[in-house]
Here is the input.
Amino acid sequence: MKISQQLLVIVYLARSASSFHTHRAVPLGSRAVLRAVQDGCGSISNNPSVAAYALQRLRDLGLDKVFGVPGDYSFSIDDAAELCAGLDWVGCSNELNAAYAADGYARARGAAILTTTYGVGELSAINGVMGSKAHRLPVFHLVGCPSERIQHLGLATHHSLGDTSHYHRFHAISATACCVSAVLTPDNAIDELERVIREALRLSAPAYISISELSGKLPVIGKPVVGRPLADLKRQHSNAKELDAAVSAVLHRLHSADAPVALVTELVARYGLSKQATGLISKANLRFAEASSDKGTLDAGLVQYLGLYNGDNSSPPEVQELVQNADVILDIGGFIETELNTGFWSEKINATRLLSLHDNWVRIGDAVFVNVALEDVISELTVRVHELRGHELGTKKELLPLIGKGDAKMTSKAFYPRLQRAIQKGDTLISDTGTCMLHLNRMLLPGGVGFEEQGIWGSIGWATPACMGVELANQKDGTKGRTWMVTGDGAHQMTLNELGVMGRYGVKPIIFVLNNGIYGVEDLLSARGHEYDDIAQVSYHLLPEAFGCHGWLSAKVATVQELEKVLGDVAVHRGAAYIEVVIPEEESQPLPSDIIDRAYKLKTPMV
Here is the structure.
């Protein structure tokens, strides 16, 4: 222990002599002593360091985990994370995994904290942070950088390009994955953090915060701000005149419609508005559908739920006609027309029928209303709307039929119906990018089941660390059930080292690894037989033990009977489960050439 820390302990014990019996005895020099002598994230003088104050302000939002990988330039942030009351450090296998885990946590908690070191660390994380930007998640990325003394002296350092003139070059790169950035110093930390937090929450997007190793250890100058939980914050504000005009215009179209339908997007969940949107849907008795990347935003058990809208790939198929023939489509959150959201751009939505409610603006035809917060628009619509016509519209939603029995070989058609029946109300299902996502998007979720995917950014391997983040976010929420994840073997190989982290922190997901020995989705989108689509052969079911995941139920299944047995075992096993599911490589057959060309536009058009 440093001399300064020893003195701090002596002062603390002297001041506490009259009530010494209330303090737990801890070994001198341990982390527990350091934690005991800290006041929150700062010192007992209530004069926190820059790094401690930054974490304290983010903790005030209701966040309790810091995902990261330690690095020398980020030691001030890492030290503060260990000492901050109410925050737990989650050390990940690498920075990309840490970013994916923070992404998953933010989906469940509304925001997340990620920390990496300068250059090599932050650039390793940037793919994951960019995915959070695509999916509108406020991930606060704290990066430690070389001290101002090194910078002013022009010294060449490691984690650089060997030059001395561009210490902030990585800031410019990392900040592109964020909506706001700042370089914190003792003098500006209090003001800058308020700006950064406000913007990240207002725009629901990541933030980049750079703290030098030196500044991170120095106390902030000024009076620290005590924040409030995220759920208590008003993230955007509206212009009253524009808001009234926008809501009136929307209501006029809705109340005049004979067959209105809503499309509800993931942006609703990102702003924490799923409950409010459900209230609007219920009061108006408005039928709604969701696109692939929006699946799970609202409860699929609602009577107004139609199913998945995905152009020609809609499920049930009649959803396509109901949405495209609707005389008014209330677009809640801004429908994103990627090829995976639209059945490879096979949607035929008449733009003149769209009433699009974006994060802070509304568009109806050529009329655009600005400075109108989505929260306020939904709230006002709920107050003023009455039951709409067309509520008799509906679809026949059914469970997938059970295919195969006994010792029949496992196939996707046998796997997904049984998974569908195993998931329970309150659970969360997570899909990796790949062939499994195409199956799960079309699968009807049981009522009360959440769903997460990364279909817009589409980085394979995201799901394994994200699953850990979701599970950690939900650990203390008694209303949440189990976290289920489905990934392909190709995607899983990208990030499977995070299994060891799950074991370390007692995370208890239910993981299915679909093993067909190839990058199946690539075969789907190109052609069979490419050597570059082959992957290393791994005995996946042996990995939990190798990674120290004690008490996990682990199995390999290749038949229907084996899958049914293991699902029964999972139902009564309250710990984690890891199931390798062998499926035929031959399932991954290329899509028809015209559909592939619809997605990639490679052929010369025939006019």
Residues 391 and 474 are 35 Å apart (CA to CA). Confidence is low (pLDDT under 50) at residues 1-40.
